[in-house]
Each structure stands twice: as C-alpha cells, then as structure tokens.
Amino acid sequence: MTTHTVQRVSTGRRLKDRLVQTLVYLAFAVAVIPLISVLWLVIKNGLARFDLDFLTHSMRGIGARDIGGGAYHAILGTLEQVLLASLISVPIGLLTAIYLVEYGRGGRLSRAISFFVDVMTGIPSVVAGLFVLAFWVLALGMPFSGFAGALALSILMMPTVVRSTEEMLLLVPGDLREASYALGVPKWRTIVKVVLPTALTGIVTGVMLAIARVAGETAPLMLTVFFTDSINSDPFNGPQMGLPLYVFDQARRPTDIAVDRAWTGALTLILIVMLLNLVARLIAWWRSPARGR
Amino acid sequence: MSQQIQVSGLDAYYGRHKAIEDISMTIEPNTITAFIGPSGCGKSTFLRTLNRMHEVIPGARVEGKVLLDGEDLYGPGVEPVSVRRMIGMVFQRPNPFPTMSIYENVAAGLRLNGRRSKSEVDGIVETSLKGANLWNEVKDRLGKPGAGLSGGQQQRLCIARAIAVRPEVLLMDEPCSALDPISTLAIEDLMAELKSQFTIIIVTHNMQQAARVSDRTAFFNLAGQGQPGRVIEMDETSRIFTNPSQKATEDYITGRFG
C-alpha cells in the first residue's frame, strides 16, 4: 500500500493557469473590439439623421446637397426583398434538409445534394446577382425588380438554411422517432409533429442567421433591383431600392449631408436585423418546451 | 381482447449479417413472457420484429412469419403503421417527447393519429395515467413538460403513452434497466396489473425480475461468436429457473457464464 498525500498546486502550474487565462481574455477582447467599434461608429454617426423624417420619406427630388430626404423607399424595398427571398428559400431549404436527414440517409442522391449545397455555400454574392441578371433579366426579358433581387438573395440563403436545418435535425435523438413510430404514427406525421418541433429553436436561429446575412448584401441587388430614388412598393415591377444599395449610393456622393444619410441607413439596417432576430427569438422561446418548467 | 402470437421460422438481418435465426414460439394472450440471455444474442432484435420496428433501421429485414390471431404481420399489403398500433412498445431509456406536456405525451398516439373529441381524449389520458400508476403524482401538473419528471416517472409516462392507444400486446425492452429499485418495483407491480388487459413481452437482464414477473421464459443464446442468436429453451418460468432441460440455460441462470 502506498500512502497518498494531498498535493498543493505547484507554482509552475499556477503561473501557466494565469498565463492561459490572460491569453483567453485577450483573445476575447481582440474579437470584441471590432464589433464594438463598428457599432459605436454607426450609432454615433447614424443618430444625427435618425428621425421620423428619415423613416417616412424617400429621396425623390432630393439631390446630394439638399438636406432632408430619407430611406423609406429603401426600407420598404429591403423588407419586401428579404421577405420574398425567405418565402422562396426557407421552404425549399427546409424540405431539402428533411429529405437529407429523414429520407436520403447517405444514398447517392443525398450525397450529390450535400455536395452541391456545399458548392452553393461558396458562391460569391456577385455571381448570384450576375446569374439572375443573365437568366431572369436578359434571357427571359423580365424587368429589373425587387423580385429579381429576391431570387438572387434566395440563392445565397438556401445553402445556409439547408445546412443549419440539417444540423438541427441530426441533433434530434433517434429514440424520439422510434417512440413515435412505436405508437403507430406514420413517418411524415412523426417528422411534422415530433422531429420539427423538437428542432424548432435551432432551425429558427439558422434561418435568422441566413436572413441577417442576405439583408446586408449589396452586389446582387445592384445587378437585379437596380436603383431608384422613388417609392416603389410593387416588388414585381420596376426598379426598387434596398438599404445596402441606399448606403452605397449615399456614401459615394460628395457631401456630408449625403454621407450622414448613408450612416443612418446603415444604422437602420442593423436595427432591422436586430429586430427580426428579437422577434424570431421570442417566437422560438414562446414555443419552447422549457418554458413551463 | 388480447390475442395469441405465433412466430414460426423467423430470421432477422442487419444488412448481410444474420442477427437471429429460426425462431419459433407461441405466446398466449394475457400472459407475461420474459426473454433472457447474454447481451448481443438478439433478444431486443426479436422483440422489435414483433411490431415491425426492426425494419426502421436501414438495411434491416426479416424473413419468416409472425401471426397475430392467425393474421401474418409480414403478409403482403400489411401496413407496418397499423401493426404498431396493435402492438405497443416501451423502450430501455424513457423517451417522452420533450416538446410536449405530460398530457400531450399521453395523448400523442391519439392526437398524432387524428380525430377524437377533447372529452374523449381527456378520459383516455386519465385512465392511461391511472393504468400506469402515475395519475396521483401528476394530476395537478398535466400541463408541465414530460421531461421534467424523474426517470421512473418518465418510464411510467411512456407506459401510459403506449397503453393509451389500446394495443393488444405490450413489448418492453429492458424497461427497468435505467431505473432505481423502487421505480423498478412500481413498474413490476404495474405489469402484473396490466396483464389482465394486455399480452406483455419483456426483455430483461435481471434474472430475478424475469422470475418475479413472468409466466413463461425464453432463453436466448448465440450458437457461437459471430453466429446468429437462437432460442435455446422456452418453458414455464418456474421450470426454467428450477429445472431447465438444457445445460446452457442452467449455466446462464446460475451465473456460470454470460
């Protein structure tokens, strides 16, 4: 029998612990600094013009040197384009992920789909815009419109939705599916009533990330929704505006007044994405099982 | 009304691997049958072939016949879904649906299969929870999540969920292996009560449990390493545990191997 004594933590180990702790905190600070400085700049510069006028007026008839003007047309355009893009890509993405996880199960077709989804993830946003320009606008002769922009955005959203949904569905334990089958519940009903609700919170988060990503895309919009200074509430007809386009457009104008408008546009965009996120979180929380505990 | 189960010449495969071979047995209505045997000898696989849950696993298939009251469950045109409504199952680990309340968990089989009025479902939920000896513990918090219960309560919730769809047969795959002795006793008592309404088949690694609860016992064993599992002996439980006819059975129950 050997006797054991309680050992004290040696000075060397304590020093190493301190060192690593410091490094981790430093790394965290380095990661957070850009975030905070971006937020700070946007808020500081954007607040100057963040008023009711800005939110309710378009840029119709307002030049670079004129004060006033707003981004109502761009806010409206962004909301419509993102909504349309979500309406296209979320159902397709969800169904694709369900197929991959619940039905495909590593077969040849599902491996091919997985591969192409990965390829799609890497498509630069300009290329998505060019594709819609070439196919929808030039080849089919459709007009520049919010819908054309939504098509380009949905190409960018789809792989993100598929991937995040797939991950979440894979996290649902097989036990639950079996429990449902063993009750005599058909497979499709098991997916709709058991698997999807269990993964709902994660799926909503994934969709929100995808929306946040495309809401700030500029390049594909330039090629598909074009520019306008007027309000166009019809996303299927004629050029529209989007907030990223608005920021881009105002920022390159030569006056401080226009640049201020660009900052405020950027602030508005951040606020919209945050608001959407908040709403989605609320919905997910409201539906979550842990609430009643 | 419970019905007789007759199995004849049943083989089950995982891909090309044959897991069980040539199993034949008759299980009488309103009895408890225990399957015992060393790990990996196909007890659970066989249990899962009885309600067509085996084929849920990719590449798994079954050959042979399972007759429930004379009708072949593997006959052409038989819907696996309808088989599972007649033959319910309780799993090794309690698996209540995490997104559902206690009430919704018990009602799941009814609700997920559509129809039925609220009052009817209310009645079935209450009788099922009473049947699973859980009613008194949960009647004041039916709206709370099922996952918030203790392990033993969760398992009884799963039993309530299984009996709510009024199956003929109840399959239990090591239902007490994750539970403490008091919860185990509660479930064993419950099985003795449920026997009057259902035919129960239980897989267990606990020999005392098999001896305590079952009327008949089947001993499963592998013919050898990598060989499919078979039924070595099936008889009255009292006979199996006092005077088995096979040497292997005696060795196993006396703890000489396995």
UniProtKB/TrEMBL annotation, chain A:
Lineage: superkingdom: Bacteria
Q: Where in the cell is it found?
A: Cell membrane
Against InterPro entries, the record matches this protein to: MetI-like (IPR000515), MetI-like_sf (IPR035906), Phosphate_PstA (IPR005672), Phosphate_transprt_permease (IPR051408)
Please report the stretch or stretches of sequence annotated as the ABC transmembrane type-1 domain.
75-280
Membrane-spanning parts: 23-43, 82-101, 113-138, 144-162, 194-215, 262-284
Q: Which family does it belong to?
A: Belongs to the binding-protein-dependent transport system permease family. CysTW subfamily.
UniProt xrefs under PANTHER family: PHOSPHATE TRANSPORT SYSTEM PERMEASE PROTEIN PSTA (PTHR42922)
User: What does this protein do, in the record's words?
Assistant: Part of the binding-protein-dependent transport system for phosphate; probably responsible for the translocation of the substrate across the membrane.
What's the protein name?
Phosphate transport system permease protein PstA
UniProt organism field: Streptosporangium pseudovulgare
UniProtKB/TrEMBL annotation, chain B:
Q: Which InterPro entries match?
A: AAA+_ATPase (IPR003593), ABC_transporter-like_ATP-bd (IPR003439), ABC_transporter-like_CS (IPR017871), P-loop_NTPase (IPR027417), PstB-like (IPR005670)
Query: Coiled-coil ranges per the record?
Result: none
List the molecular function annotations (GO) for this entry.
ATP binding
Q: A single Pfam family, by name?
A: ABC_tran
Segments forming domain ABC transporter = 5-247
- For the keyword Translocase, the answer is yes
Which SUPFAM superfamilies would you find in this protein's record?
Answer: P-loop containing nucleoside triphosphate hydrolases
Keyword annotations: ATP-binding, Nucleotide-binding, Translocase, Transport
Keyword Calcium, does the record have it? no
Q: Which PANTHER family match?
A: ABC TRANSPORTER I FAMILY MEMBER 17
The identity of this protein, by name, is: Phosphate import ATP-binding protein PstB
Q: Supply the source organism's classification.
A: Bacteria, Bacillati, Actinomycetota, Actinomycetes, Streptosporangiales
